[in-house]
Amino acid sequence: MNSKLNIVEPEIELMSGEASLVNHRVDELTRNFASQLEKHGIMHFSYTLLHGDGSSQFYFNDKKWGKRMIDDECHKEDALVQYCLSKNSSFVPWDLLAMNKQQKEIFDERQNVHKKYNGVAVSLIKTDTPLMFALSTDSKVFDLPHYLAKHKDVIRDSVDFIKGIHRDQRVKKLLSSAFLEEDGFVPEKSGILH
User: Fold this and answer.
1) Residue 188: CB partners within 8 Å, gap ≥ 6?
2) How far, in Å, CA of 32 to CA of 106, rounded?
3) Of 91, 149, 97, whose CA–CA distance to 123 is shortest?
């Protein structure tokens, strides 16, 4: 018997600030990583970088979908996002999530428009690098949750990749601080971020 997993109020106030899509450089790095996931049958990869100030950055394979999620603030109602925020850590197959009507509409749109038939959401929230991501496939018959349970290296590699991106974003922010730029040091021109 499959029972649905309920979404509870998040314990921490992440994603209370501005939401944006990742920048071009991060997008390019992520596309390269996502192409490596395809050998595992994973055709869609999305993630969220969660920052201590409440802001968040999203990556979506599909730019139009990402823009819609941010512009229409759908991420605030997205069942995957809300479930992940409500847990310290999670690995949840999409079909186990209980959803209200609005969450179901967003979820159905994601599946119908983008042919994402089955997938999982993974989160590590109460860590030094809070993150969440989704992996999904276009296949109705490929049991992605079962495959990932047997191939934990795919999850580990995804976590390591996102943590690396998160770390790079924090370093760039620190190196771009006003006092460094006032002294004539511009990180992008120094070569250390390339």
Assistant:
1) none
2) 27
3) 91
CA 189 – CA 174 distance, rounded (Å): 15
Phi, psi for residue 54 in degrees, rounded to 5 = 95, -10
Structure tokens at 107: 């979820």
Structural domains of the chain, ranges and CATH numbers in brackets: 19-190 (3.30.450.80)
Neighbouring residues of 90: CB distance < 8 A, sequence distance ≥ 6: 83, 84, 121, 122, 123
Cα-Cα-Cα-Cα dihedral of 121, 166, 24, 68, to 10°?
40
Q: Which residues in the chain land under pLDDT 70?
A: 1-16, 114, 116-117, 169-194
The C-alpha atoms of residue 42 and residue 4 are separated, in whole angstroms, by 24
- Residue 45 parent element (H or E): strand 44-50
**pLDDT, tens digit, 9 for 90 and up, residues 127-171:** 777 888 989 888 877 889 899 989 999 999 999 998 888 777 666
**Backbone angles phi and psi of 179, in degrees to 5:** -65, -30
